[in-house]
Amino acid sequence: MAQNIVVIGGVALGPKAACRFKRLEPGSTVTMIDQSSLISYGGCGIPYYVSGDVSDAKELCETSFHMLRDPKFFKEVKGVDVQILTKATRIDREKKVVEVENVTTGECAALPYDKLVYATGASPRKLNLPGEDLKGVSYVCNPEDATRIREGISSGVVNKAVIVGAGFIGLEMAEAFADMWGIETSVVEITDQVMPRLVSPALATMAQQHMEEGGVDFYFGESVTAIEGEDGKVARVITSKRTLEADVVIIAAGVIPNSKLAEEAGLACHERGGVIVDEFMRTNDPNIYAGGDCAIVKHLLTGEGAFLPLGSMANRQGRVIGNNLAGRETRFDGVVGSFVVKLFETSLAGTGLSLEAAKAAGYDALSVLLIQLDRAHFYPTKELMTLEMVFEKESRRVLGVQGFGSSGDALVGRINAVAALLKMNPTIDEISNMELAYSPPFSAAMDILNTLGNLADNAILGINQGVGPDGFQELWNQRESGDCYFVDCREKADAEELMKRNPDWHNVPQGEIYNRLDEIPKDKSVVLVCNTGARSYEAQIMLQDKGYENIINIHGGMAAINKYGVKL
User: CA dist 229 to 134, 232, 241, 470, 491, Å?
Assistant: First the structure.
């Protein structure tokens, strides 16, 4: 029997659900409404249009075969009726009607439905600051924002930019300004690191250091109190600690799900916003589905509601909804929280829980950090990759993996491999023995993921006792106390420059340890360092064999220390 489907929202999930349903039920009617004139665009590509990587804003609204996804396209190609500049004002669940208003003419109408899809997305979080409406202050929400920002930069009058927020959009926009346009760029973040709660302080600091090398300045632990202008245009940003001159300001303080209309209709919503759905993407009204950036889904590791506004998520959920509108019973079990963000020629990626998030969720969690080459050591092109694994101590269950490495596919490939397993509650042992495709141009014979699992196993067993680069920083800062003895386990040629600069730096190559035990004190904590942590681990085993008890191996070695920015 033919159905009448109404979709509120035409950006990501709405079009996907509408088109999937029409393929399954060509004889049914689908009406999609959106209050904007722009629909079905790739919002995640906006920073790359601003940077110039994407040459034309129209590309964000086109198919892969260069057809503009406008109402004509949806009608002729997909069989979906689209009403742009049409705002949903009320959902009457009893009558099964959506009341709408044309935002240009004010004309009102009512759209009856058999089933309704709520796909209203999310809106940028506004800070309600003095001066937030000045010319040159922007959010990053749609292609119109992108065009306005890029035109402002292209005019040649933008020399200094301030970005509020060090999350996904904030970092991507910082790269766009500093790298492609050479603009003096500052990022103000209220927390103490980039990508708060998503990655550890160690990985965050590595990413920060890299971006600072690219010309981006960071100001952490500061809140913006006002934005000031001259002649109606932005001129400066006032924070709780300083004043920053600015020709353009980007507010990237996160997004808020557009769930007000759903709340008014009596649909179950989260206390912080967002429509709550079950595994079939249904709301508490069986005739209404919701998904994408306006929905709250289950986090498969915490069991709590999760808000993950990503285009990939919206498209997958849209297909699920399209199936279920047609009577299928397709499930969307939930999310583990996977992400990647490009930072100049590197990237920061992760899946599952960071150590901070795992502890907040009640897990007795630990983490280990590893740096290793992303392919065979003898292959001419190779790069160091940093991975951190979070796991539950008693059960050995893997809770998440985050990493920092090149902007190619190597890092995100490892993250995706773990992401696929997380919903099945893998243990350290399964990562240690994970089967991965091997060839020297692509990986090492013992892949970095396998080694990471081995490192976690050794940490639980107490065989590999150590800290990451942040822990080393604390130890190095306290070296004048004389409580620690720093031993560089590399060969003399690698260590002698540091020994010349630092009397506290000692060199005993790992292969010479048994012959030079008299140089290493037993009454101090012995801090072992090598290039990546492998030889220092061997040195730790050797010293433990000779009765040394207070040994600290630096996970990631000098590679991690340098990426973290420790000054030796």
Answer: 7, 6, 19, 40, 58
Q: How much is the pTM?
A: 0.92
Kindly state whether residues 431 and 443 are assigned to the same domain.
Answer: yes
User: SS3 string of 512-568?
Assistant: HHHHCHHHCCCCCEEEEECCCCHHHHHHHHHHHHCCCCCEEEECCHHHHHHHHCCCC
Catalytic residue (choose from 44, 108, 141, 530)? 44
Question: Residue 459 has what DSSP assignment?
Answer: H
pLDDT tens for the chain, 568 residues long, are: 899 999 999 999 999 999 999 999 999 999 999 999 888 877 788 788 777 777 777 788 778 888 888 889 989 999 999 999 999 999 999 999 999 999 999 999 999 999 999 999 999 999 999 999 999 999 888 778 778 888 888 777 889 999 999 999 999 999 999 987 889 999 999 999 999 999 999 999 999 999 999 999 999 999 999 999 999 999 999 999 999 999 999 999 999 999 999 999 999 999 999 999 999 999 999 999 999 999 999 999 999 999 999 889 999 999 999 999 999 999 999 999 999 999 998 999 999 999 999 999 999 999 999 999 888 889 998 899 999 999 999 999 999 999 999 878 899 999 999 999 999 999 999 999 999 999 999 999 999 999 999 999 999 998 888 899 999 999 999 988 989 999 999 999 999 999 999 999 999 999 999 999 999 999 999 999 999 999 999 999 999 999 999 999 999 999 999 999 998 8
Question: Any idea what the CATH number is for the domain that residue 428 is in?
Answer: 3.50.50.60
The question of whether 44 is a catalytic residue gets the answer yes
Residues 450 and 346 in one domain: yes
The verdict on 403 and 348 lying in the same domain is: yes
The beta-strand segments (E) located in 121-205 are 122-124, 137-138, 160-164, 184-189
Please tell me whether residues 452 and 476 are part of one structural domain.
Answer: no
Domain tally, the chain: 4
Q: Are residues 167 and 185 both part of a single domain?
A: yes
Of the residues 199, 219, 253, the one at which a domain ends:
253
Report CA Rg, the chain: 27
